[in-house]
């Protein structure tokens, strides 16, 4: 009798089509014997911090690039982004009168889900850019071919970034300063399951395996299917985790998602990141928050005001209007407060570099005509430091009202 093949693998959306060569198993074997980037005790500490967010006793500031880029990796850029997170934390922590938990979208944010598998330009069709963990951004067949060696390169870049982040946070502990957080955790979308599984580790002190690729991993809006491979992987790890939820999320679906990912109702285990769009947050979010509260589930509620507000600019690039971003944040605060829930934090795409990607902001702000010259993102548009700080000031004013 042939051996029982077992259940078929669960569908895993958004995975690259790797070449059918020994390169992928070789890269995964390298990762499997590599050092962990984070320790389970650190993940447990972040879970403890996020439990305070869920209870209404702390505020999460999570932010960084949409997609980190190996070419753009530079110590000053990391320093400036970390410092920006620190400044935002100071402003928002003061406004909320709460301690801040700072989490970077960095040291591992190298894989992107995409809406189409290919990109067509001037009659040429190539695989879409899926993040530096998979292929290159340049529109050439060579760059766009998925290359498994990149998995090892982004692991190494993540290790180097994390080393710098730890040094910056360490120096801020020695000598506290307004513009550097003293404690900073890392996060990324846990999209590439081969990569995450190869970096999953066990530790005798912890009952479950944990993802050693970053402190907090989240499931994206496009891969949160209840019967999908991402949910199964996330259910199997001990890290604090988050899920992005968009405007089509049903209330029953959300309850099943929470039950599946946080069956033990462990404080700090699960954060829900709402990314509804400014036009829908006030109509869609109330039912979701009410239902989760009625079930007695203690998740953290965080607003991502970026991903529901992406629009095309006249130059053809993706952009976001500052006013839409602020409007979604205001809606999120209105809804949560109205229901007696805690507006637990913000999730932003931002950079310490002076880019022109989102439009609007304080003063002259960024104009659509600035985009062609000032756009650096390899994926979604980020807030620059001026826009980020202006957003924090405007939000602080709203909070105080
Ligand atoms: C992202 O965070 O870059 C992203 C793709 O978000 P979402 O899954 O919410 O669309
Ligand atoms: Mn993005």
TrEMBL record:
Catalyses which reaction(s): D-erythrose 4-phosphate + phosphoenolpyruvate + H2O = 7-phospho-2-dehydro-3-deoxy-D-arabino-heptonate + phosphate
Signal peptide span: none
Enzyme Commission code: 2.5.1.54
Top-rank EC class of the record's enzyme: transferase
Pathway(s): Metabolic intermediate biosynthesis; chorismate biosynthesis; chorismate from D-erythrose 4-phosphate and phosphoenolpyruvate: step 1/7
Keywords noted in UniProt: Amino-acid biosynthesis, Aromatic amino acid biosynthesis, Transferase
Gene3D superfamilies named in the record: Aldolase class I
SUPFAM superfamilies xref list: Aldolase (SSF51569)
Pfam families the UniProt entry points to: DAHP_synth_2 (PF01474)
Family of this protein: Belongs to the class-II DAHP synthase family.
Stated name of the protein: Phospho-2-dehydro-3-deoxyheptonate aldolase
Species of the source: Streptomyces lichenis
């Amino acid at each position: 009798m042939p051996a029982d093949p077992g259940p078929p693998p669960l569908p895993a959306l958004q995975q690259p089509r790797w070449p059918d060569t020994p390169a992928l198993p070789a890269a995964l074997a390298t990762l499997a014997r590599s050092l962990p980037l984070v320790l389970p005790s650190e993940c447990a500490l972040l879970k403890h911090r996020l439990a305070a967010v869920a209870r209404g006793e702390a505020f999460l500031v999570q932010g960084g690039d949409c997609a980190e880029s190996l070419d753009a990796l530079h110590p000053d850029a990391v320093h400036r982004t970390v410092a920006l997170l620190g400044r935002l934390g100071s402003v928002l922590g003061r406004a909320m009168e709460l301690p801040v938990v700072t989490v970077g979208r960095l040291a591992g944010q190298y894989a992107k889900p995409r809406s189409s598998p290919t990109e067509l330009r001037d009659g040429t069709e190539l695989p879409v850019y899926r993040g530096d963990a998979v292929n290159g951004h340049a529109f050439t067949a060579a760059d766009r071919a998925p290359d498994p060696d990149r998995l090892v390169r982004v692991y190494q870049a993540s290790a180097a970034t994390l080393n710098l982040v730890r040094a910056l946070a360490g120096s801020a502990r020695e000598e506290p300063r307004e513009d550097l957080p003293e404690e900073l955790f890392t996060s990324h979308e846990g999209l590439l399951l081969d990569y995450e599984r190869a970096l999953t580790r066990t530790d005798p002190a912890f009952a479950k395996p944990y993802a050693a690729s970053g402190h907090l991993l989240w499931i994206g809006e496009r891969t949160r299917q209840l019967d999908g491979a991402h949910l199964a992987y996330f259910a199997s790890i001990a890290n604090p985790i988050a899920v992005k939820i968009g405007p089509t999320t049903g209330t029953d679906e959300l309850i099943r998602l929470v039950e599946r990912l946080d069956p033990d109702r462990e404080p700090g285990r699960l954060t829900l990141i709402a990314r509804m769009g400014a036009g829908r947050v006030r109509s869609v979010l109330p039912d979701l928050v009410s239902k989760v509260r009625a079930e007695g589930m203690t998740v953290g509620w965080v607003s991502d005001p970026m991903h529901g507000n992406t629009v095309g600019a006249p130059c053809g690039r993706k952009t976001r209007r500052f006013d839409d971003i602020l409007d979604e944040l205001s809606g999120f605060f209105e809804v949560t407060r109205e229901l007696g829930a805690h507006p637990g934090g913000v999730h932003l795409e931002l950079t310490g570099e002076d880019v022109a990607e989102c439009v609007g902001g304080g003063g002259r702000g960024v104009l659509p005509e600035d985009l062609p010259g000032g756009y650096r993102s390899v994926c979604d548009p980020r807030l620059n430091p001026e826009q980020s700080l202006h957003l924090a000031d405007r939000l602080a004013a709203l909070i105080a009202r």
